[in-house]
Amino acid sequence: MAPPTRQFHRLSIGQDMPASRIPAEGPVDPSGGRQDGGNDSSSVESESEEESEDSEESSADESDGGSKVRAHSGITYDLSHLDTESEAQAMVGLMGEFDVVNCRASSEGFDFQLLDRPRVHIGPDAPTCTCSTFQDRPEGACQHIFWLLDQLHGCFLSKPPSAEVALSQDGRPRVRPRIEDLLKGKLEAVANQLNWQYLRNEGDSRTTAMTRVEKVRDVLSAFSPTILPEDFRPDLVETTTQARTAEQCVVQGDFEATIFRLAVHDDGVRSSLCKAMPAGACAAIYFDKIQEHSRRLLSDFDRYCATGEIPSAPSSPGGGPLLVDQVLEELRRSVSRIRSHISIRAPYGSESAAKALVFILDAISSRNKDPLDGNTWGRTSFQGEDEDQRNLYHMLIGSEDMDLDSDADLFVLDALDALAPGSLYQFIDVLRDIRGKIEVNRAPKAFLVRLGALVRSAESASASGVGSGQKRPAVGNSGGHSKRSR
């Protein structure tokens, strides 16, 4: 039977190049000459020695076994240097489409996790892949390597090279600088351009992103209607510094702990979980849970103040009586968590975060009263405090006689400031109502000024169309999360 690549001879696939490129130093045309005006453009330099050695072979006519293909990056590759099996793998890779789940840089090189388990490593030695094709034939390259290297090289080209680029058996284009040199310090920019998730190493103080262990907690806790990732199985302590095999991840009699360990140590398990519960869904679920927790907390507090009924966990810390100090602490903690997770989860969940914050602010703006007023069980004080000290509105928002600085930490408003105005436009009416209520309640001037600025920003975003027509990154509620976007 004829080699499978014969049927692809003279086939060319065209596709527009990405609008922007990652700059590389010393742009050189693959043919060996410098590009005109090449300060902000990038390309690759052919390995002159290899070209001279293979000039006779590369000039072979296609009918004699040569093959050329234009890949999705816009680069045209000369496959005549490859053996039959490698040529078939190159064709599948250069003409195919794969999804990168995430990528990261390390001291050994660069790792790219593809959907459905394959992981490609690029370093000073030949690229490797964990797929069965490469494992059966490690002296060559698999379709994943050919595809990935084309994607990466395409990021450094301002325009497709004028000459065909020869491919080596290990999947590398015969060009200089090599891709691992081009990627140094620029993988994050490449990932952003290609819309891939970039993972920083644990312990990197430059980032607020979740570590791998935190991400696993986030995904697994999303399946619970009430538990937040911070509170998910605190007994499960794991580290990625020491590798575990699948067998070593098994915790006898504890399926949840086993899945947790597998997701931390096995890229395939983690990728599958992230497919089932993507980042957008996790973000929406997280903020929805905090809103629901705050609603139950305030509802239980109101009922306790009115009747003396002790609420049940988890809205009551420890499951005992709800005292004012506990409620204040829980509400401040919830707002602080939302504020920190707005940046951690960006660009996901902004709508849910805004909804939770506006709900809390609205609920507190309606509580400028003594919570024990009119109670049926004869309580006049919790712990000897006065009326103002158990007034949630007074304690969290304040009164006009309070001298607050313009840059003071203002309850909820500082967290709302962390959101783009487009995230608030649909809550304009509620924010206006809140402003009206706290004006009547004589809130501190600094609080009124800051809230007024937020309302004007939301109104401006609404008038300019910012946010209109935007879809929520993940649709979900505490009941089922039936529809999620990736």
UniProtKB/TrEMBL annotation:
This protein is called SWIM-type domain-containing protein
Task: List, in alphabetical order, the Gene Ontology terms for molecular function in this entry.
Answer: zinc ion binding
Q: Which residues form the SWIM-type domain?
A: 118-153
Matching InterPro entries: Znf_SWIM
Top-level taxon: Eukaryota
Organism taxonomic ancestry: Eukaryota, Fungi, Dikarya, Ascomycota, Pezizomycotina
Keywords tagged on the record: Metal-binding, Zinc, Zinc-finger
User: Acidic residues: which segments have biased composition?
Assistant: 46-64
- Which residue ranges does the record annotate as region Disordered? 1-70, 460-486
